[in-house]
Design brief:
single chain, alpha/beta, Alkaline Phosphatase, subunit A, 2 domains, 17 strands, 37% helix
Amino acid sequence: MSSTQFDHHDISAASDYLGLQRRAFLGRSASGLLGSIALAWLNARDQRGTARAAEPGRPTGPHHKPRAERIICLFQNGGPSQMDLFDPKPELTKLNGKPYPGKQKVETLSPSASGNLLGSPFAFQPSGKSGMLLSELIPHTAAIADDIALVRSMVTESVCHETALRIAHSGHPIATDRPSIGSWLTYGLGSLNQNLPAFVVLPDPGGLPINGTLNWSAGWLPAQHQGTPFNSGELSVAPVLNLRTPDKISAGARTRQLDLIRKLNSQHASRFPENTDLEARLRDFETAARMQSAVPEVVDLTGETAATRQLYGLDQPATQTYGTRCLLARRLIEKGVRFVGVYLKGQPWDTHSDNANATKKVASEIDQPSAALVQDLKQRGLLDSTLVVWTGEFGRTPVSQGANGRDHSRRGFSMWLAGGGVRGGYSHGATDEFGYESVENVVTMHDLHATLLHALGLDHLRLTFDHDGRRESLTDSDLTHAKVVKELLA
Protein backbone atom coordinates (compact mmCIF):
# COMPACT_ATOMS: atom_id res chain seq x y z
CA MET A 1 0.00 0.00 0.00
CA SER A 2 1.45 3.39 -0.94
CA SER A 3 1.58 6.29 1.47
CA THR A 4 -1.11 8.10 -0.53
CA GLN A 5 -3.61 5.31 0.28
CA PHE A 6 -3.49 5.81 4.04
CA ASP A 7 -6.32 7.70 5.71
CA HIS A 8 -5.55 10.11 8.56
CA HIS A 9 -5.36 7.40 11.24
CA ASP A 10 -3.31 5.10 9.04
CA ILE A 11 -0.79 7.86 8.34
CA SER A 12 -0.40 8.50 12.05
CA ALA A 13 0.00 4.80 12.78
CA ALA A 14 2.52 4.34 9.97
CA SER A 15 4.49 7.35 11.11
CA ASP A 16 4.58 6.03 14.68
CA TYR A 17 5.62 2.58 13.46
CA LEU A 18 8.42 3.91 11.26
CA GLY A 19 9.53 6.23 14.07
CA LEU A 20 9.84 3.24 16.38
CA GLN A 21 11.76 1.31 13.75
CA ARG A 22 14.18 4.18 13.22
CA ARG A 23 14.60 4.62 16.96
CA ALA A 24 15.34 0.94 17.42
CA PHE A 25 17.89 1.11 14.61
CA LEU A 26 19.56 4.15 16.18
CA GLY A 27 19.60 2.53 19.59
CA ARG A 28 21.34 -0.65 18.34
CA SER A 29 23.86 0.93 16.01
CA ALA A 30 27.21 2.16 17.33
CA SER A 31 25.94 2.61 20.90
CA GLY A 32 23.21 4.94 19.78
CA LEU A 33 25.12 6.70 16.99
CA LEU A 34 24.36 10.31 17.78
CA GLY A 35 24.18 9.86 21.51
CA SER A 36 21.50 9.80 24.12
CA ILE A 37 21.10 13.57 24.09
CA ALA A 38 19.20 13.47 20.78
CA LEU A 39 17.29 10.35 21.79
CA ALA A 40 16.27 12.02 25.05
CA TRP A 41 14.95 15.02 23.14
CA LEU A 42 13.11 12.73 20.73
CA ASN A 43 11.55 10.59 23.45
CA ALA A 44 10.56 13.63 25.51
CA ARG A 45 8.91 15.16 22.48
CA ASP A 46 6.94 11.99 21.76
CA GLN A 47 5.84 11.59 25.37
CA ARG A 48 4.44 15.11 25.46
CA GLY A 49 2.92 14.83 22.00
CA THR A 50 3.20 18.58 21.38
CA ALA A 51 5.42 18.97 18.35
CA ARG A 52 2.66 18.84 15.77
CA ALA A 53 0.89 21.77 17.41
CA ALA A 54 4.09 23.59 18.28
CA GLU A 55 5.71 24.40 14.98
CA PRO A 56 2.92 26.43 13.31
CA GLY A 57 3.03 30.06 14.42
CA ARG A 58 6.47 29.80 15.97
CA PRO A 59 7.88 33.26 16.78
CA THR A 60 10.57 34.33 14.36
CA GLY A 61 12.49 36.90 16.34
CA PRO A 62 12.36 39.89 18.69
CA HIS A 63 9.31 42.13 18.93
CA HIS A 64 11.42 45.26 19.48
CA LYS A 65 15.07 46.25 19.48
CA PRO A 66 16.81 44.13 22.14
CA ARG A 67 19.24 45.42 24.73
CA ALA A 68 20.87 42.00 25.10
CA GLU A 69 21.26 38.82 23.07
CA ARG A 70 21.61 36.19 25.78
CA ILE A 71 21.23 35.45 29.49
CA ILE A 72 23.41 33.79 32.10
CA CYS A 73 21.41 32.94 35.21
CA LEU A 74 23.41 32.29 38.38
CA PHE A 75 20.65 30.68 40.39
CA GLN A 76 21.16 30.70 44.16
CA ASN A 77 19.24 27.70 45.43
CA GLY A 78 17.89 27.86 48.96
CA GLY A 79 17.13 31.55 49.48
CA PRO A 80 20.05 33.89 50.29
CA SER A 81 19.65 36.05 53.40
CA GLN A 82 18.99 39.57 52.15
CA MET A 83 19.68 41.32 55.46
CA ASP A 84 23.10 39.62 55.70
CA LEU A 85 24.16 40.33 52.10
CA PHE A 86 22.34 43.17 50.33
CA ASP A 87 19.82 44.92 52.57
CA PRO A 88 21.31 46.51 55.72
CA LYS A 89 18.89 46.96 58.61
CA PRO A 90 20.40 48.88 61.56
CA GLU A 91 17.12 48.74 63.47
CA LEU A 92 17.08 44.96 63.20
CA THR A 93 20.59 44.77 64.63
CA LYS A 94 19.75 47.30 67.33
CA LEU A 95 16.76 45.25 68.53
CA ASN A 96 18.49 41.87 68.22
CA GLY A 97 16.88 39.35 70.57
CA LYS A 98 13.75 41.46 71.12
CA PRO A 99 10.23 40.33 70.12
CA TYR A 100 9.13 41.31 66.64
CA PRO A 101 7.09 44.52 67.10
CA GLY A 102 4.94 44.22 63.99
CA LYS A 103 1.16 44.04 64.19
CA GLN A 104 1.10 40.64 62.48
CA LYS A 105 3.27 37.64 63.18
CA VAL A 106 6.09 37.00 60.71
CA GLU A 107 5.04 34.40 58.14
CA THR A 108 7.29 31.32 58.22
CA LEU A 109 7.37 27.89 56.65
CA SER A 110 7.21 26.25 60.06
CA PRO A 111 4.78 27.67 62.67
CA SER A 112 7.40 27.11 65.34
CA ALA A 113 10.12 28.99 63.46
CA SER A 114 9.13 32.52 64.49
CA GLY A 115 11.38 33.60 67.34
CA ASN A 116 12.76 36.97 68.33
CA LEU A 117 14.50 39.41 66.02
CA LEU A 118 17.85 38.19 64.69
CA GLY A 119 20.21 40.99 63.73
CA SER A 120 23.02 40.60 61.23
CA PRO A 121 26.55 40.43 62.67
CA PHE A 122 28.06 41.64 59.40
CA ALA A 123 29.12 45.16 58.54
CA PHE A 124 27.89 46.97 55.42
CA GLN A 125 30.01 49.45 53.50
CA PRO A 126 29.43 51.87 50.60
CA SER A 127 30.67 50.38 47.34
CA GLY A 128 31.60 51.92 44.02
CA LYS A 129 30.90 55.44 42.87
CA SER A 130 27.22 54.78 43.52
CA GLY A 131 27.85 54.16 47.24
CA MET A 132 25.72 51.00 47.14
CA LEU A 133 25.65 49.45 50.62
CA LEU A 134 26.81 45.83 50.52
CA SER A 135 27.89 43.30 53.13
CA GLU A 136 31.47 42.54 54.06
CA LEU A 137 30.66 38.93 53.03
CA ILE A 138 30.61 39.86 49.34
CA PRO A 139 33.68 42.07 48.68
CA HIS A 140 33.97 40.92 45.06
CA THR A 141 30.36 41.83 44.33
CA ALA A 142 31.09 45.18 45.98
CA ALA A 143 33.84 45.68 43.38
CA ILE A 144 31.25 45.49 40.57
CA ALA A 145 28.63 47.61 42.35
CA ASP A 146 28.62 50.19 39.55
CA ASP A 147 27.77 47.47 37.03
CA ILE A 148 24.78 45.95 38.81
CA ALA A 149 21.17 46.88 39.40
CA LEU A 150 20.29 45.67 42.90
CA VAL A 151 16.62 44.92 43.59
CA ARG A 152 15.81 44.98 47.31
CA SER A 153 12.03 44.64 46.96
CA MET A 154 11.45 41.22 45.40
CA VAL A 155 8.40 39.16 46.42
CA THR A 156 7.08 35.76 45.46
CA GLU A 157 4.02 33.65 46.20
CA SER A 158 5.27 30.75 48.32
CA VAL A 159 7.58 29.95 51.23
CA CYS A 160 7.96 26.36 49.99
CA HIS A 161 11.15 25.64 48.02
CA GLU A 162 9.51 23.45 45.41
CA THR A 163 6.67 25.86 44.69
CA ALA A 164 8.84 28.98 44.79
CA LEU A 165 11.31 27.34 42.40
CA ARG A 166 8.52 26.58 39.96
CA ILE A 167 7.46 30.22 40.11
CA ALA A 168 11.03 31.45 39.65
CA HIS A 169 11.59 29.27 36.59
CA SER A 170 8.23 28.77 34.90
CA GLY A 171 6.14 31.57 36.39
CA HIS A 172 3.56 29.12 37.75
CA PRO A 173 3.22 27.55 41.20
CA ILE A 174 1.30 24.43 40.17
CA ALA A 175 3.11 21.10 40.29
CA THR A 176 3.14 20.35 36.56
CA ASP A 177 5.86 20.24 33.95
CA ARG A 178 5.82 23.73 32.42
CA PRO A 179 8.35 25.59 30.24
CA SER A 180 11.18 27.36 32.02
CA ILE A 181 12.28 30.88 31.14
CA GLY A 182 15.27 29.53 29.21
CA SER A 183 12.92 27.46 27.07
CA TRP A 184 10.62 30.42 26.44
CA LEU A 185 13.60 32.52 25.42
CA THR A 186 14.96 29.99 22.93
CA TYR A 187 11.44 29.36 21.63
CA GLY A 188 11.06 33.07 20.95
CA LEU A 189 14.53 33.83 19.60
CA GLY A 190 16.07 30.54 18.49
CA SER A 191 19.77 29.80 18.58
CA LEU A 192 22.86 31.85 17.78
CA ASN A 193 24.90 28.71 17.06
CA GLN A 194 23.76 25.58 15.23
CA ASN A 195 26.59 23.48 16.70
CA LEU A 196 25.47 23.73 20.32
CA PRO A 197 22.13 23.66 22.13
CA ALA A 198 20.54 27.07 22.56
CA PHE A 199 19.90 26.36 26.26
CA VAL A 200 22.69 24.83 28.36
CA VAL A 201 22.62 23.98 32.06
CA LEU A 202 25.68 23.71 34.32
CA PRO A 203 24.59 21.88 37.48
CA ASP A 204 26.91 21.24 40.39
CA PRO A 205 28.92 18.07 39.67
CA GLY A 206 28.00 16.89 43.16
CA GLY A 207 24.27 16.73 42.50
CA LEU A 208 21.13 18.41 41.24
CA PRO A 209 19.23 21.30 42.86
CA ILE A 210 15.80 20.87 44.44
CA ASN A 211 13.20 20.13 41.71
CA GLY A 212 16.00 18.66 39.60
CA THR A 213 15.55 18.80 35.83
CA LEU A 214 12.14 20.53 36.14
CA ASN A 215 14.12 23.74 36.65
CA TRP A 216 15.15 23.66 32.98
CA SER A 217 12.28 21.76 31.41
CA ALA A 218 10.66 22.77 28.12
CA GLY A 219 7.30 21.52 29.41
CA TRP A 220 4.93 21.36 26.45
CA LEU A 221 7.07 23.58 24.19
CA PRO A 222 8.95 21.72 21.43
CA ALA A 223 11.49 19.49 23.11
CA GLN A 224 14.54 21.08 21.48
CA HIS A 225 13.98 24.05 23.82
CA GLN A 226 14.71 22.17 27.03
CA GLY A 227 18.02 22.75 28.81
CA THR A 228 20.88 20.41 27.97
CA PRO A 229 22.97 19.67 31.08
CA PHE A 230 26.76 19.61 30.76
CA ASN A 231 28.80 17.51 33.16
CA SER A 232 31.18 20.18 34.45
CA GLY A 233 32.83 17.85 36.96
CA GLU A 234 34.54 15.60 34.39
CA LEU A 235 35.17 17.85 31.43
CA SER A 236 38.01 15.79 30.02
CA VAL A 237 36.01 12.57 30.25
CA ALA A 238 32.40 13.27 29.32
CA PRO A 239 31.16 16.87 29.26
CA VAL A 240 27.92 15.57 27.73
CA LEU A 241 27.13 11.98 28.62
CA ASN A 242 26.98 9.42 25.77
CA LEU A 243 27.74 12.03 23.12
CA ARG A 244 31.28 10.94 22.27
CA THR A 245 31.83 8.45 19.44
CA PRO A 246 32.64 5.00 20.89
CA ASP A 247 36.38 4.26 20.83
CA LYS A 248 35.96 1.26 18.54
CA ILE A 249 34.24 3.30 15.83
CA SER A 250 36.66 4.85 13.33
CA ALA A 251 36.16 8.31 11.85
CA GLY A 252 35.41 6.80 8.46
CA ALA A 253 32.82 4.42 9.88
CA ARG A 254 31.21 7.27 11.78
CA THR A 255 30.93 9.35 8.61
CA ARG A 256 29.34 6.46 6.72
CA GLN A 257 26.90 5.84 9.56
CA LEU A 258 25.82 9.48 9.64
CA ASP A 259 25.43 9.54 5.87
CA LEU A 260 23.19 6.48 6.08
CA ILE A 261 21.08 8.08 8.80
CA ARG A 262 20.62 11.23 6.71
CA LYS A 263 19.61 9.14 3.70
CA LEU A 264 17.06 7.15 5.68
CA ASN A 265 15.62 10.28 7.26
CA SER A 266 15.41 12.02 3.90
CA GLN A 267 13.55 9.08 2.41
CA HIS A 268 11.13 9.01 5.32
CA ALA A 269 10.53 12.76 5.12
CA SER A 270 9.73 12.53 1.43
CA ARG A 271 7.14 9.80 2.11
CA PHE A 272 5.36 11.81 4.80
CA PRO A 273 5.73 15.52 3.95
CA GLU A 274 2.73 16.36 6.16
CA ASN A 275 4.52 15.10 9.27
CA THR A 276 5.53 18.35 10.97
CA ASP A 277 7.30 16.45 13.78
CA LEU A 278 9.98 15.10 11.52
CA GLU A 279 11.84 18.29 10.65
CA ALA A 280 12.27 19.14 14.34
CA ARG A 281 13.41 15.59 15.09
CA LEU A 282 16.01 15.73 12.35
CA ARG A 283 17.32 19.03 13.71
CA ASP A 284 17.79 17.37 17.09
CA PHE A 285 19.87 14.55 15.59
CA GLU A 286 21.89 16.94 13.46
CA THR A 287 22.61 19.19 16.46
CA ALA A 288 23.81 16.17 18.43
CA ALA A 289 26.11 15.20 15.56
CA ARG A 290 27.63 18.68 15.38
CA MET A 291 27.99 18.75 19.17
CA GLN A 292 30.46 15.88 18.94
CA SER A 293 33.10 18.27 17.65
CA ALA A 294 31.84 21.55 19.17
CA VAL A 295 31.47 20.47 22.81
CA PRO A 296 35.06 19.31 23.46
CA GLU A 297 36.34 22.64 22.14
CA VAL A 298 34.06 24.85 24.23
CA VAL A 299 34.77 23.00 27.51
CA ASP A 300 38.55 22.89 27.02
CA LEU A 301 39.88 25.37 29.57
CA THR A 302 43.58 24.73 28.85
CA GLY A 303 43.79 27.83 26.67
CA GLU A 304 42.61 30.16 29.44
CA THR A 305 45.34 32.34 30.93
CA ALA A 306 46.55 32.00 34.50
CA ALA A 307 45.14 35.46 35.20
CA THR A 308 41.67 34.41 34.02
CA ARG A 309 41.77 31.23 36.06
CA GLN A 310 42.76 33.21 39.15
CA LEU A 311 40.04 35.79 38.48
CA TYR A 312 37.39 33.06 38.72
CA GLY A 313 39.07 31.42 41.72
CA LEU A 314 40.06 28.21 39.98
CA ASP A 315 43.27 28.23 42.03
CA GLN A 316 41.36 28.08 45.34
CA PRO A 317 39.52 24.98 46.66
CA ALA A 318 36.56 27.02 47.97
CA THR A 319 35.81 28.70 44.64
CA GLN A 320 37.15 26.19 42.11
CA THR A 321 33.94 24.26 41.46
CA TYR A 322 31.65 27.27 41.07
CA GLY A 323 34.35 29.27 39.32
CA THR A 324 34.75 26.56 36.69
CA ARG A 325 31.05 26.71 35.87
CA CYS A 326 31.03 30.51 35.70
CA LEU A 327 34.00 30.40 33.32
CA LEU A 328 32.26 27.74 31.22
CA ALA A 329 29.18 29.96 31.08
CA ARG A 330 31.27 32.74 29.55
CA ARG A 331 32.76 30.33 26.99
CA LEU A 332 29.32 29.01 26.07
CA ILE A 333 27.83 32.42 25.39
CA GLU A 334 30.92 33.28 23.34
CA LYS A 335 29.99 30.33 21.11
CA GLY A 336 26.42 31.53 20.71
CA VAL A 337 24.47 29.70 23.42
CA ARG A 338 21.36 31.78 24.11
CA PHE A 339 20.69 30.87 27.77
CA VAL A 340 23.05 29.35 30.35
CA GLY A 341 21.82 28.32 33.79
CA VAL A 342 24.34 27.72 36.60
CA TYR A 343 22.94 25.77 39.56
CA LEU A 344 24.00 24.71 43.04
CA LYS A 345 23.62 21.29 44.61
CA GLY A 346 20.56 20.98 46.83
CA GLN A 347 19.85 24.31 48.55
CA PRO A 348 23.02 25.62 50.24
CA TRP A 349 21.55 29.05 51.06
CA ASP A 350 18.83 27.39 53.18
CA THR A 351 20.11 28.56 56.57
CA HIS A 352 17.58 27.20 59.07
CA SER A 353 20.34 26.93 61.68
CA ASP A 354 23.59 28.83 62.29
CA ASN A 355 22.58 31.40 59.69
CA ALA A 356 25.65 33.62 60.09
CA ASN A 357 28.27 30.92 59.56
CA ALA A 358 26.30 29.08 56.91
CA THR A 359 25.75 32.28 54.91
CA LYS A 360 29.42 33.20 55.29
CA LYS A 361 30.50 29.81 53.94
CA VAL A 362 28.30 29.89 50.84
CA ALA A 363 29.20 33.51 50.13
CA SER A 364 32.90 32.61 50.22
CA GLU A 365 32.27 30.04 47.48
CA ILE A 366 29.96 32.11 45.28
CA ASP A 367 30.98 35.76 45.57
CA GLN A 368 34.29 35.77 43.68
CA PRO A 369 33.22 33.66 40.67
CA SER A 370 29.95 35.58 40.27
CA ALA A 371 31.73 38.93 40.19
CA ALA A 372 34.52 37.51 38.00
CA LEU A 373 31.97 36.57 35.36
CA VAL A 374 30.74 40.17 35.15
CA GLN A 375 34.30 41.53 35.10
CA ASP A 376 35.43 39.04 32.46
CA LEU A 377 32.45 39.73 30.21
CA LYS A 378 33.07 43.46 30.54
CA GLN A 379 36.74 43.33 29.64
CA ARG A 380 35.94 41.17 26.60
CA GLY A 381 33.25 43.54 25.36
CA LEU A 382 30.49 40.98 26.00
CA LEU A 383 28.69 42.49 28.98
CA ASP A 384 26.58 44.91 26.95
CA SER A 385 25.08 42.00 25.01
CA THR A 386 24.83 39.55 27.93
CA LEU A 387 22.36 39.84 30.80
CA VAL A 388 23.61 38.27 34.04
CA VAL A 389 20.93 37.37 36.60
CA TRP A 390 21.80 36.52 40.25
CA THR A 391 18.77 35.39 42.27
CA GLY A 392 17.31 32.78 44.58
CA GLU A 393 13.72 31.63 44.92
CA PHE A 394 13.04 33.76 48.07
CA GLY A 395 14.80 35.28 51.07
CA ARG A 396 15.03 34.79 54.85
CA THR A 397 13.10 36.01 57.89
CA PRO A 398 14.24 38.80 60.23
CA VAL A 399 13.30 36.61 63.21
CA SER A 400 15.21 33.59 64.40
CA GLN A 401 14.43 29.96 63.83
CA GLY A 402 15.74 28.15 66.87
CA ALA A 403 18.68 29.94 68.41
CA ASN A 404 20.37 31.40 65.32
CA GLY A 405 18.75 30.29 62.07
CA ARG A 406 16.49 32.03 59.59
CA ASP A 407 13.38 30.53 58.00
CA HIS A 408 12.03 31.19 54.49
CA SER A 409 10.54 34.57 53.60
CA ARG A 410 8.59 35.38 50.44
CA ARG A 411 7.58 38.94 51.31
CA GLY A 412 10.91 40.67 50.75
CA PHE A 413 14.26 39.60 49.31
CA SER A 414 17.09 40.80 47.09
CA MET A 415 18.63 39.92 43.73
CA TRP A 416 20.83 41.65 41.15
CA LEU A 417 21.21 42.07 37.40
CA ALA A 418 24.22 43.15 35.34
CA GLY A 419 24.96 43.91 31.69
CA GLY A 420 22.48 43.77 28.81
CA GLY A 421 21.22 47.34 29.07
CA VAL A 422 20.87 47.22 32.87
CA ARG A 423 21.19 50.42 34.86
CA GLY A 424 24.45 49.95 36.75
CA GLY A 425 25.05 51.29 40.23
CA TYR A 426 21.32 51.44 40.88
CA SER A 427 19.40 50.21 43.95
CA HIS A 428 15.71 49.59 43.39
CA GLY A 429 12.97 49.32 45.98
CA ALA A 430 13.07 48.84 49.72
CA THR A 431 11.84 46.61 52.51
CA ASP A 432 10.62 47.73 55.93
CA GLU A 433 12.98 48.55 58.79
CA PHE A 434 13.43 44.86 59.59
CA GLY A 435 13.90 43.57 56.03
CA TYR A 436 10.68 41.58 56.15
CA GLU A 437 8.13 43.22 53.87
CA SER A 438 8.78 44.92 50.50
CA VAL A 439 7.23 48.36 50.84
CA GLU A 440 8.61 50.44 47.96
CA ASN A 441 8.72 49.67 44.20
CA VAL A 442 7.72 46.05 44.76
CA VAL A 443 8.91 43.60 42.06
CA THR A 444 7.24 40.22 41.61
CA MET A 445 8.84 37.21 39.93
CA HIS A 446 6.43 37.80 37.06
CA ASP A 447 7.66 41.38 36.75
CA LEU A 448 11.22 40.08 36.68
CA HIS A 449 10.36 37.63 33.90
CA ALA A 450 8.65 40.35 31.87
CA THR A 451 11.71 42.58 32.32
CA LEU A 452 14.18 39.88 31.26
CA LEU A 453 12.18 39.10 28.14
CA HIS A 454 11.88 42.81 27.36
CA ALA A 455 15.65 43.25 27.62
CA LEU A 456 16.06 40.57 24.96
CA GLY A 457 13.51 42.16 22.66
CA LEU A 458 10.49 40.02 23.55
CA ASP A 459 7.08 41.31 24.62
CA HIS A 460 5.84 39.02 27.40
CA LEU A 461 2.26 39.65 26.26
CA ARG A 462 3.01 38.51 22.70
CA LEU A 463 5.30 35.56 23.43
CA THR A 464 2.58 32.91 23.64
CA PHE A 465 1.94 29.26 22.85
CA ASP A 466 -1.40 27.55 22.29
CA HIS A 467 -1.64 24.51 24.55
CA ASP A 468 -4.75 22.47 25.36
CA GLY A 469 -7.04 25.21 24.10
CA ARG A 470 -5.40 27.98 26.12
CA ARG A 471 -2.99 30.68 25.05
CA GLU A 472 -0.10 30.21 27.47
CA SER A 473 2.73 32.60 28.32
CA LEU A 474 5.59 32.83 30.79
CA THR A 475 3.99 35.65 32.78
CA ASP A 476 0.29 34.73 32.35
CA SER A 477 -0.32 38.44 32.71
CA ASP A 478 -4.12 38.20 32.78
CA LEU A 479 -3.72 36.70 36.24
CA THR A 480 -0.41 38.14 37.43
CA HIS A 481 -0.60 41.65 35.90
CA ALA A 482 3.12 41.42 35.20
CA LYS A 483 4.90 44.59 34.15
CA VAL A 484 8.31 45.51 32.81
CA VAL A 485 10.37 47.28 35.48
CA LYS A 486 11.78 49.97 33.23
CA GLU A 487 13.70 51.64 36.05
CA LEU A 488 16.14 48.71 35.99
CA LEU A 489 17.07 49.37 32.36
CA ALA A 490 19.40 52.07 31.12
